[in-house]
Amino acid sequence: MRRLNLEVSEKELSKVGVEIPPFHKIKSLELLHFLRQDNKEIAAVWKIEFKDPATKIEELLVQDFLFEVQLLEKEKNGVYTIFMRGGPTFASVLNSIGVVNGYLFPPLGIQNGLIKISFLGSAQQVREFLEKLDAKGIRYRITLMGDAQFSPDSPLNQLTDKQREVLISAFKLGYYDIPRRINSDELAKKLNIVNSTLIEHLRKAEQRLLHNILTQRNDFGLNDEKNQTTPHNSQP
Q1: 205 Cβ partners below 8 Å, 6+ apart?
Q2: 124, 147, 170: which is the final residue of a domain?
Q3: What are the tens digits of pLDDT across the range 3-61?
Q4: How many domains does one find in the chain?
Q5: Pair (108, 205) in one structural domain
Q6: How far is 104 from 94, CA to CA, in rounded Å?
């Protein structure tokens, strides 16, 4: 997978043709964690600081854009940790700039009128994202572009690139939700692979993650058993 970091001004982003009403009140905004990110709903935890300290977080609520805001923590310096949830209008902003098949992730946010965007996807998805920005006439500055790097102790390092892509896509699109928002056939079509290949990637990724987690904790005595079994090293 490829990682792209870029910076763009709020004024440039307005060229997508979608108004972003609450953002003019914001001095800084930092993504902490995405809970849901698709074309129906955006839900995430953010750190936020307003230009006017008297601004209340409820003022972010805008019909058909942001319909839920909850205060999680207020710091002494006027910075809030909040949960925000928006609907299709919010999601359409992302779709308008090409965030359709890839993923947004930290660092992501706003600082004094400058928007920082981090995008994760295949080489083709990164290229299509940049082409969409260019087609909109949006000027931007790339600060990083290269292979996605994960923390050395991250379980994701145990997976192949394709396993990571399939697993992250499955999680993002709701394959693991209860009830599921997408089935394996639909997910396979989105990833342009056959269903049997999708299932193989998912099962191998899940097996490797579970093996990594359980053996580190020595649950079920797996560390004692691993010397008695032959590890399965095949990769799709």
Answers
A1: 159, 163, 164, 166, 167
A2: 147
A3: 899 998 877 877 766 556 567 788 899 988 888 877 778 888 999 999 888 898 988 88
A4: 2
A5: no
A6: 9
